Amino acid sequence: MASKLSTCFVCWNLSGFNCVNHPNSNGRVVRVPFPASCRMRHRTTFSSQHKRQQIKPYMEVGLPKNQDEEEDSEITFNHDEFVDNTSDTTAPLAININGAEQAQQLSGKQIEDLLGMIRNAEKNILLLNQARVRALKDLEKIHAEKEALRGEINVLEMRLVETDAQIKVATQEKLHVELLEGQLEKLRNELAEKESTEERYAKVHDPQNGDLRDAKPLSNNDIIYPLTEELNSLRAENTSLKNAIESFKAQFSVVKNNDERLVALEKERSSLESALKDLESKLFSQEDVSKLSTLTVECKDLWDKVEHLQSLLDKATKQADQAVTVLQQNQDLRRKVDKLETSLEEAYIYKLSSDKLQKYNELMQQKIKLLEDRLQKSDEEINSYVHLYQQSVKEFQDTLDTLKEESKRRTLEEPVEDMPWEFWNQLLLLIDGWALEKKISMDDASLLREKVRRRERPISDTYKAYKEQSEHEAISAFLGLLSSATSQGLHVVHIAAEMAPVAKVGGLGDVVSGLGKALQKKGHLVEIVLPKYDCMQYGRVCDLRALNVVIESYFDSQLYESKIWVGTVEGLPVYFIEPQHPDKFFWRGKFYGEHDDFRRFSFFSRAALEFLLLAGKKPDIIHCHDWQTAFIAPLYWEIYVHKGLNSARICFTCHNFEYQGTAAASELESCGLDKNNLHRSDRMQDNSAHDRVNAVKGGIVFSNIVTTVSPTYAQEVRTAEGGHGLHSTLASNTKKFIGILNGIDIDAWNPATDAFLPVQYNATDLEGKLENKQALRRNLGLSSADIGRPLVGCITRLVPQKGVHLIRHAIYLTLELGGQFVLLGSSPVPHIQKEFEGIADNFQNHDHIRLILKYDESLSHAIYAASDMFIIPSIFEPCGLTQMISMRYGAIPIVRKTGGLNDSVFDVDDDTIPPQFRNGFTFVNADEQGLKGALLRAWNLFKNNPETWKQLVQKDMSIDFSWESSSAQYEELYINLAKTSQIGNEYNECDMVAENMLLVPLPHRPVVTTLSVRAGFDHGILRRINRLRVIEIPAPVMVHWVQVSFLHRYLPITGD
Asked: How big is the CA angle at 1002 (ends 999 and 1008), to the nearest 5 degrees?
């Protein structure tokens, strides 16, 4: 397969340049820079592929090695000799190759030699150019010095000419002065003669020395008049001569000055002539002339050498181009040879494989035969498989149909998770409205509520279609869905005087809405009952509407109507009760603080229970809050259990034991409670004023479980000081009293989504907090000059409980430390409000203090976001939400260790607390020194360690203060209470047997009380059991069974 190759290799043998350093007259070595225009082209063609060893070298071409290669980066010149080896360059060698045996090829070593020669040529050219540039610079310098000397000579010559001209002018002026002096002398003589003539004339014509103009004329007028005219003309001439003399005197002084100037100019001329001679001697000194001539000669030589080097450079460039061309041809030839070798190898492999292929074909024939046999068998197997597959497809289709039916059934049974709670709450309110309006029965309403509580899809779909149907058709559709079902969650009804955000005064409103939403998320049905205040925020109530029904409740020995309104607040269903009482209980323009608050809220409590009874509701838990709804517990057990509202257990939460709702005992009669039965020391009689009743005490005694808002506060109220007179009642009911720390609504209080803030931010991006700080400063008119100035915030009710004297001290202390202080809040106490109004007036236009004595929801969010620190110096604090919200917004709390503050804020300097829980600054004593110490520690950390402060802010913002944990504790309490509802139902049957018997107290009754409370036994049932009194002879056995045997069925007897 070999073919005839014919090509021509041309190799240009380049010899190096032997050059030496070329010193100039000053002994310097000239180095010439290599210009960019002379760089070698196609350098990239010399790659590593030329260095690889060939499989079969077909030819070799000898390439003489350059003996004069130098690794040095300089070219040296000798002043007298210059070696040019270009004449020794060999002529191009052409070799014609005919056949593969005569082919030769350059070896890798020879190519490297060629590359080395080219590199040396580049170095030589570079050095030649450097020498050329330096020579040009020296020549330009010499020319510049020569031109400067010529300029100085020209200046001196011009000044010499000017001096000669000034001397000539001075000589002419001197001659002129001499001429003027002669004229002046002549004029002086003439003047003297005229003066003597005038005197003689005056003596002749005026013997009495009078004026000729005053003398009488002579008789001969023709003679006298000409003489008078001549005399006047002489006088005028005399005046002009005097003026001329003065001018000559001035010119004479000028001439004298010119003489002095002439002398100075002559001196200057002599000095210039001497300087000119010095310059001429310096310019034309023998040494300089010799140097200049030497430089001229050297410059000429350098120009000649540079031109010669340029010609050499051109030749070298041509030779390099020819070498590159030869190498490219060599590469082309090498590629062709590689292709030929590849073809030969393939042909050889093909020849070897032909024999193997024949053997392989024979083997394949045998395998094909075997495969045909197997194929026949596999066809039979496939047919059987197809039959089985058809059967399996049929079975799969049947199974699929079954699964579809089951999936459809499960879809209908599974709760609908994609609908918001507002949807279910509106549906629940619709069902309640139909029940109250007696359009459906109470039993049907209960069954429909169960479906809503389980969030079943059929009732969801029916409600969606409700808008397209008439009410009668919708009711029929809903009733068609009824079926028996069991509840999966609890039904909890909160009866309260506040709910955020529609009716909020303090933390109670936040707890009702926050706890309600958390329980709703856990799958429980939560409903709220509120008074319909005229001053609540109606804009925050969704779908508010009045039901076409009124309820009648007992009050002041007669029945009064109340109107029922329904709506949703924060996704929770809310029932608003509007009393139609002539006293307009809730149309007063405020929530609390009326003289008849006891009557207002006792009316509301009974109306709320009447509503639950009329609506046919069967709640598991009724949760009442504070003294305003503490009436619920005695009303429920004394009245409404007997009316059929008996499914619930009562949970009472006291948010602040300072407010207890006391009144004269006779006030209980208004809402239908028996004064004689309840005005007792173990029931509702006030522990301090025995002629009064205490609503909170009634809530404690008659409720199944009593809670307060933090564990520490639960311990504090057991003392005489903290319990405000109820410590003994709590001690006797201690088994059912517990403290649960409140949470906050993290959706409403979230700096990352807060719509009230100009800029949202989070723990990982705190830039927004600084922007909110600047925005608040602009809004309140505070100084923004120092961005890093700390801002201390305080949002509170200004009452003694909150430590108003410490708040006042914090204002002035912050100002003294160089910070800014913002207070938001008002006081129901007149003298406190007046005091802080005076402070606000004093700081009305201050750059760093601002007091806003009102409550503003949007401004409170802005203050939380802008503050660096938050002051909460409470004397006592049941729970406190302010510290939790401030930490949520990155404001470090400074608090007194009391109540819920002690349960949620842990001092950063307290070594007894694990570091991960330290989140603020605390103090113990409720005095100015305690507050000052804590504020100073916070101030120093903020100023001196900003990085640690930032980490503290980020940690506080990451703490979970949500209702998740607190609601779980309430949920556990509710579930335990709900289990006792069966006990209550069975007891009702026993109560019917023993209710009318005359009973006496038994000595073991306290044991029963202890057992019942410890096990979470229903206190209302226990109270009613303990009221049983037994006839001494036969009855004690029966009553003992009622009290002990009955309890043993449900309670673990512990031995107490």
From this structure: 115
How many helices, marked H, and strands, marked E, lie in the chain?
30, 19
Neighbours of 80 (CB within 10 A): 6
Neighbouring residues of 673: CB distance < 8 A, sequence distance ≥ 6? 631, 634, 635, 638, 639
The gap from C-alpha 793 to its chain's centroid, in whole angstroms, comes to 21
**Rounded distance, CA 869 to CA 940, Å?**
12
- 760 vs 772: CA distance, rounded Å: 8
Measured distance CA(936)–CA(790) in Å, rounded: 12
93: nearest Cα among 104, 109, 107, 108? 104
Using CA atoms, how far apart are residues 125 and 316, in angstroms rounded to an integer? 9
Closest CA to 758 of 767, 849, 869: 767
| Pairing state between β 705-708 and 692-694 | unpaired
β 892-896/93-96 pair status: unpaired
At position 1032, the amino acid (one-letter code) is: E
Q: Compute, in degrees rounded to 10, the torsion defined by CA atoms 1024, 1025, 1030, 1036.
A: 170
Compute how many other C-beta atoms are within 10 angstroms of the C-beta atom of residue 881: 23
229-263 pLDDT, tens digit per residue, is 666 776 676 777 667 667 666 766 666 676 676 77
Q: What phi and psi values does residue 934 have, to the nearest 5 degrees?
A: -70, -40
Coil, strand or helix: which one is 216? coil
> What is the percent of the chain with per-residue pLDDT over 70, rounded to a whole number?
73
Question: Can you name the residues that pair with 575 across neighbouring β-strands?
Answer: 529, 566
The DSSP string of 961-1013 is: -SHHHHHHHHHHHHHHHHHTHHHHHHHHHHHHHHTTS-----TTHHHHHHHHH
Give the torsion through C-alpha atoms of 985, 987, 990, 996, to 10 deg: -110
Q: Give the Cβ contact number of residue 167 at 10 Å.
A: 13
Diameter over CA atoms, the chain: 196
> What single DSSP character describes residue 467?
G
CA 758 to the chain's CA centroid: 12
Q: Which amino acid is at 790?
A: P
904 touches 884 (CB < 8 A)? yes
Place of tokens 């410890």: 1014
Q: Whole-angstrom distance between the N-terminal and C-terminal Cα of the chain?
A: 116
pLDDT-derived band at 152, boundaries 50, 70, 90: confident
**CB atoms < 10 A from the CB of 578, how many?**
21
3-state SS, residue 806: helix
Do 160 and 269 touch, CB atoms closer than 8 A?
Answer: yes
* pLDDT tens track for 483-517: 444 456 899 999 999 999 999 988 899 999 999 99
- The structure's pTM equals 0.54
Which pLDDT band, with edges at 50, 70 and 90, does 28 fall under?
A: very low
Sign for the pseudo-dihedral over CA of 926, 928, 930, 936: positive
Report the alpha-carbon distance of residue 79 to residue 298 in Å, rounded. 9
Alpha carbons 638 and 632: distance in angstroms, whole number: 10
DSSP state of 40: P
Residue 42: left (phi > 0), alpha (psi -120 to 50), or beta?
left
Classify 439 as helix, strand or coil.
coil
Q: How does strand 491-495 pair with strand 621-625?
A: parallel
767-780 helix and 857-866 helix, angle to the nearest 10 degrees: 130
Quote the radius of gyration of the chain (alpha carbons, Å): 61
In this model, does residue 77 exceed pLDDT 60? no
Place of tokens 């399996």: 392
